[in-house]
Amino acid sequence: MPALCRDCLTPVPAARRCPACGSPRITAHEELFSLTIAHMDCDAFYASVEKRDNPELASKPVIIGGGTRGVVSTACYVARIRGVRSAMPMFQALKLCPDAVVIKPRMEAYAVVSRAVRAMMEELTPAVEPLSLDEAFMDLTGTEKLHGAPPAVMLARLIKRMKDELGITGSIGLSHNKFLAKVASDLDKPRGFAVIGKAETDDFLRDKPVRLIWGIGPAAQASLEKAGIRTFADLLRWDREALHARFGTMGERLWHLARGEDRRRVSAHAPVKSISNETTFFEDTASLDVLDGHLWRLAERVSDRAKAKQMAGRVVTLKLKRANHSALTRRLSLRSPTQMADKIYRTARGLLDQAVSEGPFRLLGCGISDLVPESQADVTGDLLDPQAGQRAEAERATDAIRKRFGKDAIMKGRGLR
Questions:
Q1: What is the pTM assigned to this prediction?
Q2: Catalytic residue among 31, 50, 135, 300
Q3: How far apart (Å, rounded) are the C-alpha atoms in residues 401 and 412?
Q4: Is 50 a catalytic residue?
Q5: Across the chain, what does the average pLDDT equal?
Q6: Does the pLDDT at position 34 exceed 70?
Q7: Distances from the Cα of 104 to the Cαs of 62, 260, 294, 344, in angstroms?
Q8: Which of 111, 187, 237, 311 is a plausible cystine mate for 194, CB 3.0–4.6 Å?
């Protein structure tokens, strides 16, 4: 059976330890050197960067997130052993792990490491499809002649480089399509390397829960359970037409995934569908003055990201969450796409005025969607707001000042609330 030592990168006989270096980190699989679709997922990425930058945290439970009213962005594996999970409310996480070191996210630092990882992946193949800062799909089809080694060896080399040069670890899932590669990457974390081959796909999936499917959240899972679908074997008992009739387009997708089929290609240029930002408050609030200050800062962040991506949005969305976690979402389509903070803020503020009476709120967010190139942005005037053009010019001047002197060189008064 083909096997690989992930420490010395030597193809070896399947064994408990590498005969070359003695490492127990051996990956063996019949299809190891023929599969080409991979998913790489950094291990507890934000926490790993913090531990790398502060060695005193190495053995301590670390949680990345905001105060007691926020949620966990990520947690190191020491904290995960205690039951802490991503998206868990902070107060609950701290009950489970009261001695945790809580650190506010440093997105700029994480982005620097993410770009370095992305550069390493692109040395292997141009077909890299990022899903977030810490994970991406790769298609290494046809790269064996270029690198003089099969994809599995190059993927093991990538993970070793990440550890040696960047001080972080990652896990690899290797398979014959994106769905199974992503499933595989979560089977052996941390520092994992899991393989799902074509020949074993049916047997592997049969008894697995449908929650393995990316995108099946609690609501979708409840809907499937209501129909008696808990495992892939349950899904296989439904014919294609019945699944489509019951679940619409999701039913069509489920029919294919139940059989391990996923024809999506790894795309290096997957379109961005929306740009958004949100914040969770330390205390619930219905104060319009407090909400307004936060809304302006959120609009600025959304605007900055849109400008960096050279995009604009036709739809502005406001998101609110009450203390009981019930959510309100309001959207408004614009006459002309925008990337300007002023326009995003004023539109979202109008939506907030309509919804504020339904507070108090624990979370506020805003964003833009239905994205287009920035060349199509803000091309029509606003007869109802003749000062909009002047404010847009002032905003562009502000952008130029910040670019030269730093993001804190100039700010609006409402941003200090």
A1: 0.73
A2: 135
A3: 13
A4: no
A5: 88
A6: yes
A7: 11, 39, 17, 26
A8: 187
